Amino acid sequence: MTDSRERINERLAKASRVWLFLDYDGTLADLAPTPAHVLPHSEVIDLVSNLAHHPRIRLAVVSGRRMQDLEKLLPVPGIFLAGTYGVEIRTPEGETQHREDFDSLRLILQELKRSWHKLLVGRPRFFLEDKGWAIALHARHVPDQEATAVLSQAEALAARTTSSGPFCVLGGDKFLEIAPLQADKGRSVEYLLERYAWPGALPVYLGDDDKDEAAFVVIQRLGGLALVVGSRRQDTDADGSLESPKAAREWLAGLPTRMASQDCESVVRSRGSGPWRA
Fold first, then answer.
1. Minimal CA–CA distance to 77: which of 89, 91, 63?
2. CATH superfamily, region 102-180
3. Residue range 128-152, pLDDT digits in tens
4. What pTM, to 2 d.p., does this model score?
């Protein structure tokens, strides 16, 4: 961590506007048992709605989930949604943007999906997720040795199948995903900040895993703040941390009071608030 709690609150107290970027799973809401669980969280919806209506906050949710899942989880007008790490984007006006050509990529992913299905026969604890734009293997509930062996085989199959297309490999803890090159949270945040510039706004990003680190780099390069959520992350360059999604929601609920205000007393009071971890 590079900044103290006081330093972060001082920077927010000087911000007249905040361009806020949020991950969903593990940041706004606790991790679901599997990605197939698409159950809206009323507290999250209320929080995002309140932030979206604030005149000095612009909000984007940037998630590895596909867009159709995000729209179910966050039926909130007036926000940016970036699904599959930003390959598909929905603007506050409802415009949908695709940053890759779906049809050409999908043919290759379908072939890889068939190969992975064969690999997983007799292995019910693995979860194969089809996001449309990407496919992923989850092995959270699989013993370490088996998970390592199967994911290694799956990656080798992917290397052969996707060699002719613009794909990248996204790893993680007992996780493997094959996605388009634009499936990168750093590139997606950079794209949104450039295309929808908001002069004078402080960029702030909250995320919980290694996919968010690329966005942290972009946010910090542009003079913003990056906050990591969860107590598991030690290898992070984030400016500060929040111990859990619950703590992140509490911090976000108080964000407007931490921003620049004509009322100096309220700014001073806000500097000591927030569920931070040292």
1. 91
2. Trehalose-6-phosphate phosphatase related protein; domain 2 (3.30.70.1020)
3. 999 999 999 999 999 999 999 999 9
4. 0.87
